[in-house]
Amino acid sequence: MNASKPYRKRHEELKRWKVNRAVVTFRNLFHKLMHQYKVYEPGNSKVKTKALMETARTMRREHQWENTQKCVGHILGIDVGDVFQNRAELNVIGLHRQFWNGIDFKVMDNSLLATSIVVTDRYDNAMKSNGTLVYEGQGGNPNVGRNVSLIDQTLKGGNLALKNSMQTRSPVRVILKVCEKFDGEFSNTGNDSHYSYVYDGLYLVDTMKIERGRFGKLVFKFTLNRILGQPETCVSLKDHGEASRQLASFTPRKKHKLKGCVAQKEVVRIKDLSNGGEKFSVRVVTSSDCVQLPTSFDYVVNNIYSNKFKQEILCGCDCADGCVDKESCVCFRKNGSRMPNDCNKRLASDMESSLTYECGPSCKCCSSCINRVTQHGIQFQLEIFLTELKGWGVRTRSFIPSGSFVCEYIGEVSDYMEARWRLDDDYIFHMGVGKVFINAGKCGNIGRFLNHSCSPNLCVKDVMYDHKDKSLPHKMMFAVRDIAAGRELTYDYNVSNGKLIKCKSNSCYCGTPECNGQIYI
C-alpha cells in the first residue's frame, strides 16, 4: 500500500501535466487561427466560434485530446476550482463532452447516467450559498437557439440521465459559467465582460419535480447539493432566496489555478518602466493582492560600453534605393549574398548563421530599408509580470509572427576584469566571444526580465550594424514561432552564442514537455 502511494502521486502529476499541455496547445492553435481568420475574414462575427471548433477538431485528428473515455466522478488531472476559457476546452480535456448541450451523460449497465452539467443563465438555474443548485432540465428553450420549438420538456436524454443519477446516487460534475468584468468583479450579466468556466466539484441529485417554466411549458427542476469536503472554488455564490429564478452572481473567494493557463486579476503597477524610451510603453503588472515591484535599475535603450573598447565604424553601403538592388549592396555581400530579413522584415528561414549584418549609421539607405530591423527598438506591446515560480517575466500583449524581432539584451558591456566583482549579479550575459559580458543589473532594458525555457519561443541572434568588432555583437531576440497574445517570452540560457549567468538557482520551472528540471546542463 505504501509503495503504491508515490506511484499514484506521480501518475496524478503526469495527468495534470498532460491536461495542462492540452490546454496550452489548444490556446496556442486557437490564437493562431483567430489571427488568420481576422486577416482573411474581416467583419465576420462568427470568427471566434469557427476558430474554436476548428481548433478542437484539429486536436482530435492529431489525438491530442485528454481523458477521451467518459466517466462518472472527478477527472484525473483536473482540480476543483480550475478555470477554463470556453466550452471547447472542456471537451478537449474531457471535463464535459458536449459543445452545446448543458447535460453530458454516458451509458452504464444499459442505463443513462449524467456525468457533468454546465450551469448558465440561459435556463432558469438558481444557486444558493449553502451549495444547493436548482437546475432546469434541457429542451424547449428558445434562448439556446433560433429554431428551438417552444414545447414541454420530455424525460429523455440528459433529463433522463439526471433522474437515473438521482436514483442511483451517482455524483455529477458541475461547471459554472461565470462572467468576469473588466473591473475584476464576477457576475452573470453585463456586456463588457469575459466568460470563463469554473469546475465547482461533484454534486448529488436529490430531487426532481415538474413545474411550469417562464415560457408556460412544463420543465424539469433538479435539486443538486454539493458533496461536502471538497475545496472551495474561485467563486462564491450569493443566496438569492427560495423564490430566485436567476443564476447567482459571482464574487471572488479563493483563487485556484491551472498552472500556466489561468490568470488571476491583475493591476498595472507601473505604466511605463522605460519612461518613454521605447516606442511602446513597458508596463509592470501584478496580481491585485501583490504590491511587489522590480528591483530598482536604470532603464536604457542602448548598450553602455566600457572605455576599454575602441569601436571602429562599420563600413556601410551606398544604396540609394533602400537596398532593393541587392547585388550591389555591401551589407548584402557581408551576409553571404543573402538578405537576413524577408519583405516583412522578419528573419529569413534560410539564415542559419548566428551573426548577421544590418545596414547602419554609415549606410546611405533610408531608415525604412528592409535590412534595418533591430535598431529601431521593440515593435510589439510587451509587459513585465510576476510569474508563479520564476520571479519576474516578460509576455506579449499582441500577436508576434514567427521571425519577428522582439527585443535586444541591453546593459553595461565590460571585460572579465571589470565584470568579475559583479558576477554574483542576476543579469550577467556572456557574449560568447572571449571574456566580454553584458551586465544588466544596474542598467538594462526589458531583456533582463526574460526567463529561461527548455522549449523557448525566442532565439538569440548576433547582429552588427554600428561597428566592426565581432567580439561585441548586439544580442537580439527573435521569435522562433508564432506567439499568441498573453504568452510569456522565453529563450534558452544555454545558447551557443552567449549564456546568461544565473547564480541563485539552477532549477527550471518552464513546465514544457522538454523540461529536464535544470537550466544549465
From TrEMBL:
<dbReference type="GO" id="GO:0000775">
    <property type="term" value="C:chromosome, centromeric region"/>
</dbReference>
<keyword id="KW-0949">S-adenosyl-L-methionine</keyword>
<keyword id="KW-0808">Transferase</keyword>
<dbReference type="InterPro" id="IPR007728">
    <property type="entry name" value="Pre-SET_dom"/>
</dbReference>
<dbReference type="InterPro" id="IPR051357">
    <property type="entry name" value="H3K9_HMTase_SUVAR3-9"/>
</dbReference>
<dbReference type="InterPro" id="IPR003616">
    <property type="entry name" value="Post-SET_dom"/>
</dbReference>
<keyword id="KW-0158">Chromosome</keyword>
<feature type="domain" description="SET">
    <location>
        <begin position="380"/>
        <end position="494"/>
    </location>
</feature>
<feature type="domain" description="Pre-SET">
    <location>
        <begin position="315"/>
        <end position="377"/>
    </location>
</feature>
<dbReference type="GO" id="GO:0032259">
    <property type="term" value="P:methylation"/>
</dbReference>
<dbReference type="Pfam" id="PF02182">
    <property type="entry name" value="SAD_SRA"/>
</dbReference>
<feature type="domain" description="YDG">
    <location>
        <begin position="73"/>
        <end position="226"/>
    </location>
</feature>
<dbReference type="GO" id="GO:0042054">
    <property type="term" value="F:histone methyltransferase activity"/>
</dbReference>
<dbReference type="InterPro" id="IPR001214">
    <property type="entry name" value="SET_dom"/>
</dbReference>
<dbReference type="InterPro" id="IPR015947">
    <property type="entry name" value="PUA-like_sf"/>
</dbReference>
<dbReference type="InterPro" id="IPR003105">
    <property type="entry name" value="SRA_YDG"/>
</dbReference>
<dbReference type="Pfam" id="PF00856">
    <property type="entry name" value="SET"/>
</dbReference>
<keyword id="KW-0539">Nucleus</keyword>
<protein>
    <recommendedName>
        <fullName>Histone-lysine N-methyltransferase</fullName>
    </recommendedName>
</protein>
<dbReference type="GO" id="GO:0008270">
    <property type="term" value="F:zinc ion binding"/>
</dbReference>
<dbReference type="InterPro" id="IPR046341">
    <property type="entry name" value="SET_dom_sf"/>
</dbReference>
<dbReference type="InterPro" id="IPR036987">
    <property type="entry name" value="SRA-YDG_sf"/>
</dbReference>
<dbReference type="GO" id="GO:0003690">
    <property type="term" value="F:double-stranded DNA binding"/>
</dbReference>
<keyword id="KW-0489">Methyltransferase</keyword>
<dbReference type="Pfam" id="PF05033">
    <property type="entry name" value="Pre-SET"/>
</dbReference>
<feature type="domain" description="Post-SET">
    <location>
        <begin position="504"/>
        <end position="520"/>
    </location>
</feature>
<dbReference type="GO" id="GO:0005634">
    <property type="term" value="C:nucleus"/>
</dbReference>
